[in-house]
Write a structure and sequence with these properties.
Blueprint: H1 3-11, E1 15-20, E2 26-31, E3 35-40, H2 45-51, H3 53-63, E4 66-70, H4 72-83, H5 95-102, H6 104-107, H7 112-123, H8 127-130, H9 152-167, E5 174-178, H10 184-193, E6 196-201, H11 204-216, E7 223-227, E8 237-243, H12 254-264, E9 265-278, H13 287-292, H14 302-311, E10 315-322, H15 325-339, H16 341-347, H17 350-369, E11 372-380, H18 391-405
């Protein structure tokens, strides 16, 4: 039995993996569910799996190095993440992780020019492509599920009201949206809360789509979208919000990010950062994700973020972990993508489709099995900037959700309760 098979035999404890070689010979490892059968089409693939596990699993799926005959992609990823064979004994399997860790600071060195390049790699794909799986407001971040029966539109609407409630916005307030994407949150805060919103992005495609959406919504005079790096900002706002952008900042730049956020907040202002995070301490971005999806990206542990907040003289006034919400979000994205896969393949090719299938499936698996989650962190300069208890959030959130259900066009007068 070669090294690959010996390691599977030793480390695969949860679930059953059956391998079928090109000659049709079968070998089974482990026991119980999930049950996965792989037909190996490329005899070099097991060797690559030993030395570059993350790349080999993803690229192998994209290139057809293996075929999943039983269980499906999601079951394969569950099997891999529940067993986590790489990065533990024996020493030979620690080498890939060690190489990755040695290069982590370089990978995340996101100076302005590299940041623009990294953003373009992912977000400059056409709006039509993202519309194949996103909701109608193009929210490319974790939705908020009050029930597992919520559909994507409902859950994303609830995410917007959840964030708005934490921001305590009054009509006429100025709001900065760092990493505004296609403008969904900015337009929501303008329409529902009566805010004047400035949204910044590094993606030209997103900028154009956001401006068009503002015009169509009749909010062009209330929302201003700009192509700008957060490090160039020199204005102050009543509120600062950043959703799904902090993952692109990089550990080398956390203090600079929060320094900028503080400088942009008025003395009594409130900020909110919504980011994917790690529940098991600092780590690395796996090589496949870094190469194909988010170059320069990193999902932080709280232990890496809080020191930067403290050193830049900000106070954490609320912190909420959202655990399985992103697993549900990516599950629904993959369902939508699958239904419209033929359209995507006509515009791109099969390998591109398989790359996105693997990305969305592995994202769901990571939030279910690899201790990824989402943090919503509220910060302020003044300890008295927000009320004493969290009751104000529920009151405002219920009002906003009622307006959404009734398709009302009015704004909420005020979220600011008595202190």
């Amino acid at each position: 039995m070669d090294l690959f098979h010996r390691l599977l035999d030793r480390y695969l404890k949860a679930g059953t993996l059956t391998l079928v070689n090109p000659e049709g010979e079968r070998e089974q490892f482990g026991r119980g569910d999930p049950r996965v059968t792989l037909r190996i089409n490329d005899t070099n693939w097991p060797r690559r799996l030993l030395w570059q596990p993350a790349l080999a699993v993803g690229e192998g799926y994209m290139d057809g190095a293996y075929t999943i005959e039983q269980g499906g992609l999601q079951s394969l990823l569950e099997l891999a993440l529940r067993n986590k064979p790489w990065g533990r004994d024996p020493w030979v399997l620690r080498i890939p992780a060690l190489v990755e860790r040695l290069g982590k600071r370089h990978y995340e060195l996101n100076r302005p020019r590299r940041s623009r390049s990294n953003v373009a790699h992912h977000y400059e794909l056409s709006v039509d492509f993202f519309d194949t799986f996103l909701d109608s407001q193009r929210q490319y971040s974790c939705a908020y599920f009050r029930s597992l029966q919520d559909d994507l539109e409902t859950a994303q609407q609830q995410k917007l009201s959840h964030i708005a409630a934490k921001l305590c916005i009054r009509p006429g307030m100025s709001v900065l949206d760092i990493g505004c994407g296609w403008g969904g949150l900015a337009l929501y805060l303008a329409k529902r809360c009566g805010a004047r919103v400035t949204g910044i992005t590094l993606a030209q495609e997103q900028l154009e789509a956001a401006r068009l959406a503002a015009q169509r919504a009749g909010l062009a005079g209330q929302v201003n979208f700009r192509l700008e790096d957060y490090r160039q900002l020199d204005e102050q706002f009543d509120r600062v919000v950043s959703v799904g952008m902090f993952e692109h900042v990089g550990r080398n730049h956390y203090r600079q990010f929060f320094r900028t956020l503080r400088q942009c907040l008025k003395p009594d202002g409130i900020g909110l950062v919504h980011t994917i995070g790690r529940g098991d301490g600092p780590g690395i971005t796996n090589a496949w994700t870094r190469k194909y999806i988010f170059p320069g990206g990193y999902c932080p542990a709280l232990s890496e973020v809080i020191p930067a907040v403290e050193k830049e003289d900000l106070l954490v006034t609320d912190l909420e972990p959202l655990r399985l919400h992103y697993a549900e979000t990516t599950r629904l994205w993959l369902q939508r993508f699958t239904r419209r896969r033929a359209e995507v393949q006509r515009a791109f090719d099969d390998r591109f489709c398989r790359m996105w299938e693997f990305y969305l499936a592995s994202a769901e698996a990571s939030f279910r099995w690899a201790r990824l989650l989402v943090f919503q962190m509220q910060v302020a300069r003044d300890i008295a900037a927000v009320p004493l208890t969290r009751d104000y959030m529920g009151t405002a959130e219920n009002t906003l959700n009622t307006l959404a259900r009734n398709r009302a066009t009015s704004t909420v007068r005020s979220f600011q309760p008595s202190q």
